[in-house]
Design goal:
mainly beta, Immunoglobulin-like, 8 domains, flat, disordered C terminus
Length: about 1100
C-alpha cells in the first residue's frame, strides 16, 4: 500500500498511487553499483500508477549528474531528478599565512543546503560548529569573535569576491580545536547563498600537510537537530616566517586611488634562497602589480626594479598578474639564510580599501618540496574615494548669473562636513547657502564653501547649494570634494570634472502633426483633425547651433509633458540635404528626454531640419516648452535653448468613445449604444462618423440618454456616412454621455476598416475627438453551414444547419439564398424539417428558398434539408446565405458569404438511408447506398468515410460486421482489414485504387446503436476522399476530401424505405495473458 511506503501520516498526499497488486510479488532484487534489477511476478495492471521503496547508500556529496532512470516490462522512463544530500557545497579554506605557530586568519567559504536560523521567531538561533585539525588552537573568544560575510558575486577579476553584507558573530570555545558560532534569526543563512566565515586561529606548531576542517550546522542551540555537514580540505603548515618591511616617500600613500610610484619592499628570509626556488608576494585585493599596457622591459610588472647589488636579477623569471608577484629564482648563486631582498615597483591604491579580512600583504618561499616559509602583515590605511559622484546644475544656466548646484556622492566612511572647492573656471561661492535644513554652508570663500552635514557610510547624499555664481567664460567645471571627521580627511575626490557653458540653439518653423495627418489616404477622416492629448504625433523644427558639437557629443531634446521617441527621427543638413549620422542612446528612464550620439560634427550657422515622434501631454499644458541642447557625456551642454511653443503646437482633447450593439446581423437596422467620456470639454455639436458600408436612417435617435436631443444624417465625408448629434448638458451630472442609442443600418459584412469616429466642435472649431477602432462587428450567424455534394447536374440533397441567438415568432421566415446557376423546384416532398419545430415552403421568391415558420423558434441550433439542382460547373460567385427575419420581415440573424462546394466532373449520387430498427437503445443495421452513373477511373477515390450524426455510434467490432453489397458489380475494396472502425462515430473504408468503380449501385451495411436523444443535425455524411499516400480520410471537410453527400437520418419510430438485411455477424473478444515482468531500475549518480 502507498501508506506503507510513505507512512499513514502523509498517505493522503499520495492517494493517486494504486495499491501494489498482491500477486505481483518481488521475486528478487540484486544491486550492482548504481544499478538494481528486481524480478516481479505478473500482475501489475496497465495504466495504474505504482510506487515502491528501495534501500540505497548515499554518497558523500550530491553527484553532479544526479539523474535516475527506470525500465519495466520493455518500457523506459525519461531521466528524472534525484534528491539533494544535506551537505555544504562550494567549500574551501584560505589561510592568510601557512607559517607555524602564527596567529592566523582563515577564510572558510561555504554554501548551505538547509537554511540556518530562518524562523518566524526573532529570538531563535541556529548553530555553526567548526572543528580545526589537530595541532591548531582557537584563542580566547566571545562577542564578535568571527566575521560572517555574505558573498554576492564576482568582481571584475574572476578571483575577486564581492561582499554583499558582513556581520560579526558570537562564538563559544568548546575545545582548543572546536568553535560554536551562534547564528541569530536576524543573520539567518539561506540555502544556496555563498558565505565566508573569517576566524582567528593559531597555526599548528608542527610542520604538517593539509588536513581537513569540519563544518556542521544545527537548527537549535543545543545542537540536537543536525542540518548539514562537510569536511573541507585544509592547508599545509610550513616551518618558519619571513621578515617584511616597506617604505614610500611620496604623499599619497593613504589616498584612495592614488598612484604609488616607486614603492619599496624588503624581505629577509629565514632560510637560504636557491636556484629553482619560488617567491610569491601577494598584495591585498584592489592592488594591481601588473604592467601598464603595453609594457616595456624584461618582465610584465609595473616598473619593477632591483638595486644593482640585489641578489635577484633579470636572470630570474618574474611574473606580475593582478595582485600577485611571482619570482622563479634562476640565479647561479644562493642567498644564505637571513639574506635580504630589495625591490621597488609602481602600483595604485584601491579606490575603496580591501575588506578587513583580506587587507594583508603576504609572502611565501617555496622549493620543489613545497612551502618553506611564509608570513603576512597588515596593509597601510587608505582614505577611500567618494563613490557615485555627480554634479548637476539645478537652476538657471545663464553665464555670469547665479544658480543652484547639486553634488551627489556616496561616502565610504562617515563624516561631519564636506568642503567643495571650485578649481576651474572662475566659480563664486561668496553668497552660497545650503538648501536642505540639515545642511549648513559655512566659511564661504570665492572658490570654496564648507557645508556641515551628517554623512553616513554607504548612504548616498546630495549637497544642494543655492546662489552659486556661474562662470561667465564657460568651459569644463572642475571641483575638489573632501569630507572631514574631527578635522581628519576621511573621503576625498580631487579634480572632478563636471560640465561646461552652453551656446545658443535657434529654433524656427515648429510643426506638430498626428500620424493620421501624415497619411491621409489611409486615414481619410482623422487626417483632417488635430493631434490629440496623450497620443502619438510627429514634431518638426529648423535648428541652428551657436557652437560646434563634435563627434561623440550628445544631442538631447527635452519636452516637458511630452513623451519623446526615436521612431521616425531624422536630422538633416538643409544645405547638403544629407542625414546627420547619429546613434540613438535608449538609456534614459525619463520619457520627456531623448538623446543621440553624434557621429559627425554639427557646425555653427548651418540650419538643420529635425523630425521626431512624440506622445502629446496627458492634459492641456498651460505652456509648452521644449529644450534643445548638445552636450558631451557627463558635461554641461555645449549648446542650449528653451523655447515656448504653446501657440504653435495645437493639441485637442481625446474622447473616450465606444459604440456597441447587443446584436449586429448583416443587413439589419440595429440599436447601437454610444458612450462618450467628454472630459472637461462641452462641445456644442457632435459628429458621429460610421465606417464604409454602415448608414443611418432619416431619424437615427433611438434614445438620447442624458445629453443628446437630436440625431439626423450628416454630410457624406470621406466615403462615409455621418450622423449629427445635438447635445444639451442640462441633465449631464458628470463628464460622460450615457444612455445614448442611435439607429444604425449594418452592411453585409464587417468592413476592412471597422473604426468609428466622434468629433466635438465649439462654434465650428474642433476641441476634441475620439475613435473606437474595433467598432461594430457584423455577426454572422454561428455554426451555419450549407452542405451538399459538388456533383454536376443532379438533384443534390442540401443540409442546412445554423445556431441562432434570437427567438423568432410564428410567421417568421428562414431564407436560403443560393448562386444564380442553381435551380430549385419548390416541392414539400423534397423538404425535410429535421429539427425545425414546424414550417412550410414559400415558393414566391426567385433565387432563394423561403421557409415560413408556423410556430415560434427559440434560440438554439437547428437543421433542415432540401434539394437543389446543381449546375454543370462551379459558379463564379459561389456563395450561399441564410437569413432569419421576424414576422414583420425585419432581419434578426443571418450568415452571408457561405462558400459553396466545388463542382467536380464525377457522376454519382447518394440514395436514401435504410435501417432495420429505429427505437432508442436498439441495435439497428443501417445501409448507406450510392449510385455510380459513369465509370470512375482507378485511383480517383482512395477511401470512403461514413460520419455518423452526433450521439450516434456504430457497434462494429470486426471487419465482417460491415457488409458491402451491390446490385451488379462489387465495390473494389482493399485487402483486409479494408475498414477502420476504431472511432465510434466514423467508418473508413479503404478502396483498391488499382480498380475502377464501374456503373452500378453500392451499399455498405453495418450495425449502429440508436441513441436516446436524436441530435438537431440528424444528418449522416458520406465522403469520398482522393487517394493520397500516407493520408487517411478522417473528416468530411479534410484536405483530401473530394465530395460529401449529406444523407437525412431517421427518427425514433420511423420505418425504413428498405429494411431487408442479412443476419448479424459473430463478434470476437480480446484477452491479455500476463507474463513475468522483469523490471530494471537505474539510479544514475548514486550507490546501491
Amino acid at each position: 500500500m502507498p501508506s506503507e511506503i510513505f507512512g499513514t501520516s502523509v498517505f493522503s498526499a499520495y492517494s493517486a498511487f494504486a495499491a501494489w497488486e498482491s500477486v505481483a510479488n518481488v521475486v528478487s532484487c540484486v544491486g550492482d553499483g548504481t544499478t538494481a534489477v528486481a524480478h516481479v511476478n505478473a500482475g501489475l495492471l496497465m495504466g495504474n500508477l505504482y510506487i515502491f521503496r528501495i534501500q540505497v547508500t548515499n554518497p558523500e556529496m550530491t553527484p553532479n549528474d544526479n539523474k535516475w532512470h527506470i525500465e519495466c516490462g520493455g518500457e523506459s522512463s525519461d531521466l528524472f531528478d534525484g534528491f539533494t544530500l544535506w551537505t555544504f557545497t562550494r567549500t574551501s579554506t584560505t589561510p592568510m599565512s601557512n607559517a607555524v605557530t602564527l596567529s592566523n586568519l582563515v577564510n572558510i567559504s561555504f554554501s548551505p543546503f538547509n537554511d540556518i536560523a530562518t524562523t518566524i521567531s526573532s529570538s531563535a538561533e541556529g548553530v555553526l560548529l567548526l572543528t580545526a585539525p589537530s595541532g591548531f588552537s582557537f584563542g580566547d573568544v566571545g562577542v564578535d569573535c568571527a566575521l560572517l560575510e555574505t558573498m554576492f558575486s564576482l568582481g571584475d577579476a574572476e578571483e575577486t569576491p564581492t561582499v554583499e553584507d558582513s556581520t560579526f558573530v558570537n562564538c563559544t570555545r568548546l575545545s582548543d580545536t572546536m568553535l560554536r558560532f551562534s547564528i541569530p534569526a536576524s543573520s539567518a543563512l539561506v540555502s544556496g547563498i555563498d558565505y565566508k566565515l573569517v576566524v582567528s586561529v593559531n597555526n599548528s606548531a608542527v610542520v604538517s600537510s593539509a588536513q581537513s576542517w569540519r563544518l556542521e550546522s544545527f537548527s537549535d542551540v543545543d545542537m540536537i537537530t543536525p542540518l548539514d555537514i562537510v569536511d573541507v580540505p585544509g592547508f599545509p603548515i610550513c616551518d618558519s616566517t619571513v621578515e617584511w618591511t616597506y617604505s614610500y616617500l611620496g604623499s599619497g600613500l593613504h589616498v584612495g586611488g592614488a598612484a604609488l610610484d616607486d614603492l619599496s619592499l624588503s624581505v629577509r628570509l629565514p632560510d637560504s634562497l636557491n636556484h629553482g626556488d619560488t617567491l610569491v608576494f601577494s598584495a591585498p585585493w584592489g592592488y594591481d602589480l601588473g604592467p601598464k599596457s603595453p609594457y616595456e622591459g624584461d618582465h610584465p610588472c609595473n616598473d619593477l626594479t632591483f638595486p644593482a647589488d640585489s641578489h635577484i636579477t633579470n636572470s630570474s623569471e618574474i611574473l606580475c598578474e593582478e595582485n600577485v608577484l611571482t619570482v622563479l629564482v634562476q640565479e647561479s648563486t644562493s642567498l644564505t639564510s637571513g639574506g635580504q631582498i630589495l625591490f621597488s615597483l609602481d602600483t595604485t591604491n584601491p579606490a575603496v580599501p580591501s575588506p578587513w579580512s583580506t587587507n594583508y600583504w603576504r609572502v611565501e618561499h617555496r622549493d620543489a618540496s613545497g612551502l618553506l616559509s611564509a608570513n603576512l602583515w597588515s596593509s597601510w590605511d587608505v582614505v577611500p574615494l567618494l563613490q557615485d559622484v555627480h554634479a548637476v546644475i539645478a537652476g538657471s544656466i545663464s553665464g555670469g548669473g547665479q544658480t543652484q548646484l547639486h553634488f551627489g556622492f556616496t561616502p565610504v566612511t562617515s563624516a561631519s562636513e564636506v568642503v567643495i572647492q571650485g578649481v576651474s573656471p572662475g566659480w563664486d561661492f561668496t553668497e552660497t547657502s545650503a538648501l536642505p535644513q540639515d545642511q549648513v554652508a559655512t566659511d564661504n570663500q570665492l572658490d570654496r564653501v564648507t557645508v556641515t552635514v551628517d554623512l553616513f557610510s554607504a548612504i548616498p547624499v546630495v549637497i544642494k547649494l543655492n546662489f552659486v555664481g556661474l562662470p561667465s567664460d564657460g568651459g569644463p567645471a572642475v571641483f575638489d570634494i573632501t569630507t572631514y571627521s574631527s578635522d581628519v580627511i576621511v573621503n576625498q575626490l580631487t579634480d572632478y570634472e563636471g560640465f561646461r557653458s552652453p551656446g545658443e540653439v535657434a529654433v524656427t518653423a515648429p510643426l506638430l502633426q498626428s500620424p493620421y495627418m501624415m497619411d491621409p489616404a489611409l486615414h481619410p477622416v482623422t487626417s483632417l483633425w488635430f493631434p490629440q492629448l496623450s497620443s502619438l504625433a510627429i514634431a518638426s523644427f529648423s535648428l541652428t547651433f551657436g557652437s560646434a558639437a563634435g563627434v561623440g557629443s550628445i544631442f538631447r531634446i527635452i519636452a516637458t509633458s511630452y513623451t519623446l521617441s526615436f521612431d521616425d527621427f531624422s536630422l538633416v543638413d538643409t544645405v547638403s540635404s544629407e542625414q546627420v549620422a547619429l546613434v540613438h542612446l535608449p538609456t534614459l528612464s525619463v520619457s520627456d528626454t531623448l538623446e543621440c550620439s553624434l557621429q559627425q560634427e554639427l557646425t555653427p550657422a548651418t540650419t538643420y531640419a529635425l523630425t521626431l515622434s512624440t506622445v502629446t501631454p496627458i492634459e492641456s499644458p498651460s505652456s509648452t516648452r521644449w529644450v534643445f541642447q548638445t552636450t558631451d557625456d557627463g558635461e554641461f551642454p555645449i549648446n542650449h535653448n528653451e523655447v515656448d511653443l504653446t501657440s504653435e503646437f495645437h493639441v485637442v482633447g481625446a474622447f473616450i468613445f465606444a459604440i456597441s450593439v447587443l446584436r449586429s446581423p448583416p443587413l439589419a437596422t440595429v440599436e447601437a449604444s454610444v458612450s462618450v467620456y467628454l472630459g472637461e470639454v462641452r462641445p456644442d455639436l457632435l459628429t458621429l462618423v460610421a465606417p464604409i458600408g454602415f448608414s443611418f436612417p432619416d431619424q437615427c435617435l433611438y434614445a438620447g440618454g442624458n445629453a443628446i436631443t437630436s440625431c439626423i444624417p450628416g454630410k457624406f465625408t470621406a466615403e462615409r456616412n455621418t450622423a449629427t448629434l445635438i447635445p444639451s448638458y442640462d441633465s449631464l451630472t458628470g463628464n460622460s454621455i450615457l444612455g445614448l442609442f442611435v439607429y444604425v443600418i449594418t452592411p453585409q459584412n464587417t468592413p476592412a476598416d471597422p473604426s468609428w469616429q466622434l468629433e466635438g466642435t465649439i462654434s465650428g472649431e474642433q476641441v476634441a475627438w475620439g475613435e473606437d477602432s474595433s467598432g461594430l462587428v457584423v455577426m454572422q450567424m454561428s455554426d451555419t453551414s450549407v452542405l451538399y455534394a459538388g456533383v454536376p447536374e443532379i438533384n443534390a440533397r442540401v443540409a442546412v444547419t445554423f445556431r441562432t441567438r434570437v427567438t423568432l415568432d410564428a410567421g417568421s421566415t428562414i431564407q436560403v439564398q443560393y448562386p444564380s446557376t442553381f435551380t430549385y423546384v419548390c416541392a414539400e416532398s423534397l423538404f425535410w424539417l429535421l429539427s425545425l419545430p414546424g414550417g412550410s415552403l414559400a415558393c414566391e421568391q426567385e433565387g432563394s428558398v423561403l421557409v415560413r415558420l408556423n410556430t415560434s423558434l427559440p434560440a438554439g441550433k437547428y437543421a433542415f434539408a432540401l434539394d437543389l439542382f446543381t449546375p454543370g460547373s462551379t459558379p463564379i460567385i459561389n456563395e450561399f446565405a441564410v437569413i432569419l427575419s421576424d414576422s414583420s420581415d425585419i432581419v434578426q440573424d443571418g450568415a452571408l458569404g457561405l462558400v459553396g462546394q466545388t463542382i467536380r466532373d464525377l457522376s454519382l449520387q447518394a440514395e436514401l438511408l435504410t435501417w432495420t430498427l429505429s427505437d432508442a437503445g436498439q441495435v439497428s443495421t443501417v445501409g448507406v447506398t450510392f449510385t455510380v452513373s459513369a465509370n470512375i477511373v482507378p485511383a480517383t477515390f482512395g477511401q470512403i468515410l461514413i460520419t455518423l450524426p452526433e450521439n450516434w455510434a456504430h457497434v462494429v467490432e470486426l471487419t465482417s460486421d460491415v457488409e458491402s453489397s451491390t446490385y451488379n458489380n462489387s465495390l473494389p475494396l482493399a485487402p483486409e482489414p479494408w475498414v477502420d472502425f476504431s472511432l465510434e462515430d466514423k467508418l473508413i473504408v479503404t478502396l483498391n485504387v488499382s480498380q475502377a468503380i464501374v456503373v452500378g449501385q453500392y451499399r455498405l451495411r453495418f450495425p449502429v446503436s440508436v441513441p436516446e436523444q436524436i441530435p438537431a443535425y440528424n444528418v449522416w455524411r458520406l465522403t469520398f476522399c482522393e487517394s493520397v499516400e500516407g493520408a487517411s480520410c478522417m473528416e468530411p471537410s479534410g484536405a483530401n476530401s473530394l465530395l460529401t453527400f449529406p444523407i437525412v437520418g431517421f427518427n425514433h419510430g420511423d420505418v425504413s424505405p428498405d429494411f431487408s438485411v442479412s443476419g448479424a455477424t459473430a463478434r470476437g473478444g480480446l484477452f491479455f495473458n500476463a507474463t513475468l515482468l522483469v523490471c530494471a531500475f537505474y539510479f544514475l549518480g548514486g550507490s546501491v
